[in-house]
Amino acid sequence: MSIFRRGKKAEQAESVPEAEATPAVPPADDNASGGGEATPAVADGPTSAGADEQASPVTADGAPETPGEAASSAAGPYDSAEVEDLGGRLDLGSLWVVGVPGMELRLEIEETTSNVVGVTAVLADSAVQLQAFAAPKTMGIWDDIRSEIAESIVSQGGTADEERGVLGTELRTRMPSAGPDGRTVFAPARFVGVDGPRWFLRAVFSGRAAIDDEAAVTLFDVVRGTVVVRGEAAMAPRELLPLRLPQEVAEPGEPGAEGTEDEGGPSGDDLKPFERGPEITEIR
Prior knowledge:
Elements: E1 2-5, E2 78-79, E3 90-91, E4 95-97, E5 104-109, E6 116-123, E7 126-134, H1 142-155, E8 159-165, E9 168-178, E10 184-196, E11 199-207, H2 213-225, E12 227-228
């Protein structure tokens, strides 16, 4: 597995429409970077302990069950309380990510803050982006988020269909964007969500994995092997859990750096259902 730090997000070739989310609490300041056709005003919500509540549980295949109970993730992804140690995973702060042969791990860096805001595993002509968010204690948020993403994409001329998948209900979409000749082109994206204990993990599949179940198998293994580290701090629902550069990777130019800034290969476009940084929607 090789590790790459993405360059400035503004240097990406083109952007696709952002998925809009309907705020459930009073609006917060827009501190996310990146651009798309629709800029959602998503609320961060109160940061009191009352807002920081446990998400609904999931079944072994990731399907939500009754809110208020402990999550069951026998097949993963896992909460940090369910594992004893890294177990060979890469520590990225709120996410511990498992590696597979031939995989490149790309870190999305927010230009204005230099913070890591997304993790993307690239394998051949497929990719999956992982982000974890804080979630309420008494209910999951995937049902609402899935509906908001679908509504935004459809309103912009794309398509969004719900299907039963490996980790429960997922959203298969075709994202509209302007092609080089000015015509509208559609990029496939597959949204998967898992509600865990006070966290929500979103995986966005792109490239061949967005349309081909067989191509997505290994990347699903990466998702299911992921551990989410929620932490004890009170956070607003939908707030991005903090990510960081792995200790194994030195700063650019330092001896021992395992990867370099991503200069070629597949590139990602933006998608922001939470107004919290760039999202991978297409791998070229």
